[in-house]
């Protein structure tokens, strides 16, 4: 096992560090900047189904559901296709309205999650075209769907999902870009710009990973917290949800993710000097709005840990701690802002003596209801 961990203390840490490589493996062969295209066989063969879709319904569970939420922003923003994101477990039992004009995208790392599998079967019965995004090759979901694409993240052993999440987002972004270009909702120039930016993401993730020692110091300050709040807006709202889930899963600290502006409708009542609030406050995407949310937290004495864009000074002046990420478009920012949150959860869990790779009561793959 020590060999499998490749010198890391835990699989989770190894998998966090594998992300630059894993993201590259996801877009390799698909992202073709020189040709100005995105190649995805499963999409090319079914292009009409996608282009004629009334809407896309994404079904998934857990972290994969969070990737679906990020995709909702990307698809609507770039490809202008209406998207709904559903927990597979709810979707399967609520007699959903689905027609043969709908495209259902099922996202699953393992490809074996029972609820997601059942949602796929239901969608197929109702005539929808079902596209799978899985990591495990030949898995049940990969076999059950009409077409699909693999994330190629490599085996993920840690129960808390890390590289599966970022590679799912990478793949969903490629899909959105492809559809946006094919349908003409995205200009050639903008398309090219995002493709080029995507190629630079692995190097930027490497840079975020360099903040690991700083994040370890922050983790030491907050390791005894009983509650934690995660806030983000736009594309980074689902990242806040995922950050909170990571902390809950492996450190057993109660954590909630919220859209930053919703804070005033409830969670703000919880903020006092004991409450660490992790805020994603990158430059592109509602920056000024997030800054005013940070001011609201500060005036209630909450402790602020902010994920900011390199060189930021405004939030730095307000926050107790900042972790910088390289500049990026809002659309690709989740691939960067997620990383510090993974590392923060990891270090807190280790410091609390938790079993990081196999947290209590959780399974890597939930194959029963
Ligand atoms: C379990 C795992 C999570 C995962 C979820 C969905 O709860 O612990 O990490 O996100 O299942 O799994 P899937 O394999 O369908 O992505």
From TrEMBL:
A Gene Ontology biological process term: UDP-N-acetylglucosamine metabolic process
A GO term, aspect molecular function: glutamine-fructose-6-phosphate transaminase (isomerizing) activity
Active-site residues, as the UniProt record annotates them: 364 (for fru-6p isomerization activity)
GO terms under cellular component: cytosol
Localization, UniProt: Cytoplasm
EC number: 2.6.1.16
Catalyzed reaction equations: D-fructose 6-phosphate + L-glutamine = D-glucosamine 6-phosphate + L-glutamate
Domain SIS stretches: 46-185, 218-359
Enzyme class: transferase
Main location: cytoplasm
Keyword vocabulary terms for this entry: Aminotransferase, Cytoplasm, Glutamine amidotransferase, Repeat, Transferase
UniProt key word Transferase: yes
Superkingdom of the organism of origin: Bacteria
Quaternary organization: Homodimer.
Protein name, entry field: Glutamine--fructose-6-phosphate aminotransferase [isomerizing]
């Amino acid at each position: 096992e020590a060999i499998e961990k490749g010198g890391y203390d835990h699989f989770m840490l190894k998998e966090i560090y594998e992300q630059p490589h894993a993201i590259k493996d996801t877009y390799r062969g698909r992202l073709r900047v020189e040709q100005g295209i995105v190649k995805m066989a499963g999409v090319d063969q079914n292009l009409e189904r996608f282009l004629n879709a009334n809407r896309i319904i994404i079904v998934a569970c857990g972290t994969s559901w969070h990737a679906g939420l990020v995709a909702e922003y990307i698809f609507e923003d770039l490809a202008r296709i209406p998207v709904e994101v559903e927990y597979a477990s709810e979707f399967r039992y609520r007699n959903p309205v689905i027609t043969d004009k709908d495209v259902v995208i099922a996202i699953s790392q393992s490809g074996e999650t029972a609820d997601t599998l059942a949602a796929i079967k239901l969608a197929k019965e109702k005539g929808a075209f079902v596209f799978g995004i899985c990591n495990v090759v030949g898995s049940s979901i990969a076999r059950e769907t009409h077409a699909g694409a693999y994330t190629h993240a490599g085996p993920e052993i840690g129960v808390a999902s890390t590289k599966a999440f970022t590679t799912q987002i990478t793949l969903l972004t490629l899909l959105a870009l492809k559809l946006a270009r094919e349908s003409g909702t995205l200009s050639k120039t903008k398309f090219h710009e995002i493709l080029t930016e995507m190629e630079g993401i692995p190097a930027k993730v490497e840079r975020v990973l360099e903040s690991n020692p700083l994040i370890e110091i922050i983790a030491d300050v907050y390791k005894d917290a009983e509650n934690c709040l995660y806030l983000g807006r736009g594309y980074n709202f689902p990242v806040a949800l995922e950050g909170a889930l990571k902390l809950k899963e492996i450190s057993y600290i109660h954590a909630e993710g919220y859209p930053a502006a919703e804070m005033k409708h409830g969670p703000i009542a919880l903020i006092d000097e004991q409450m660490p609030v992790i805020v994603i406050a990158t430059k592109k995407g509602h920056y000024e709005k997030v800054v005013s949310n940070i001011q609201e937290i500060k005036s209630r004495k909450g402790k602020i840990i902010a994920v900011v864009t390199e060189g930021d000074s405004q939030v730095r002046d307000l926050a107790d701690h900042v972790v910088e990420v390289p500049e990026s478009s809002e659309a690709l920012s989740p691939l960067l802002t997620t990383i510090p949150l993974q590392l923060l959860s990891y270090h807190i869990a280790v410091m609390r003596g938790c079993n990081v790779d196999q947290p209590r009561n959780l399974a890597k793959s939930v194959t029963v209801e």
